[in-house]
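Subject: Sanity check before I submit

Could someone independently write out the structure tokens for this chain? I want to compare against mine line by line before I put it in a report. The sequence has 331 residues.
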Amino acid sequence: MKHLLLLVFALLAPNIIRGEIEEIVAKAGDEVLLSCPVNTPECGDFHSLKWYRDSSRMYVYSPAAKFSNAEGVLMDRCLDISQRSLGADCARGYLEVTDTNADLKITPIEITDEGEYRCEITYLDVSNNCPVVHFTNLRTVAAPEYVSMSISSNPDEDISGQVVGPYSSGSSVAFSCESGGGKPAPSVSWRFGEEDLEGETTVDENILNGDITVTSVVVVDLEREHSGAYLYCSVINEVLDEPLETQVQVDVNVAVKSVFIEEETTGQEDTEMVISCSAVGGRPLPVISWHMPEGVEFETEEESEILEDETFKLISKLTFTPTREENEKYV
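---
Independent answer below. Compare away.
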């Protein structure tokens, strides 16, 4: 009797062959077609066919009952009042049936559609030993939607593309770079001037809608050579051909390197005299003040330039007409 029961079970057991499971990669917004071979010429007609994603049923089809319906998340738009203009086209899942296939079309793909899909076929005649389950892995990907930068102490203010500071030379500032919408989570890289920096990165995923947010924090130690330098944050994942990038320019206050008056000039009484004072290497633009003997009338003229290190050179020219009373006086 036991042998008979085992024989009956073997005859009725479904023919499930997993083998190497096909993987389909789809971008959010794309259309995909998941294959389900039914082979009715060899296996005969089938009573019903069901599609599942993991443990959730997604589609039911029965040619005998003339029943064909999407289910679950494939019907979400039909329950969304803001999507009512779609009418009968609100479903995201459709079945394309031929003599050899009952393929599930999903459009548009959403990030949360990722998972293992399987179709289960119930043939009218189970004696043909035809495969009744077919598996497909669907992996969803998306390009990052944005990248923004902020000061870590004020994360709600987007400073992308701005000049930040001024900061004092020798200080440290923490910057945050955030990117959202990408899947898989993008990698984040930092560059300050010509130097690559290493940030501390965290990844958060919204379990309801699958949105991924990546945040990277880097601490920058500022020196005089960083004044005017650009800080770049770049993100990239497999969907992007080129990194998505944002940047800020960092303004650093630095002390003047040197102040000097041109070599001593000998003037002549009642003849106009010009003395130049230069302040080099400061940021922001330094201020030069002149102090003259009491009663002496004078004029000043200034010119400035930005040096290669983004600091300033300021030249102030003092013009006056000396008299004998100013002889050997200090300016």
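---
OP: Matches mine. For the report I'm noting this point. DSSP finds two helices and 23 strands in the chain.
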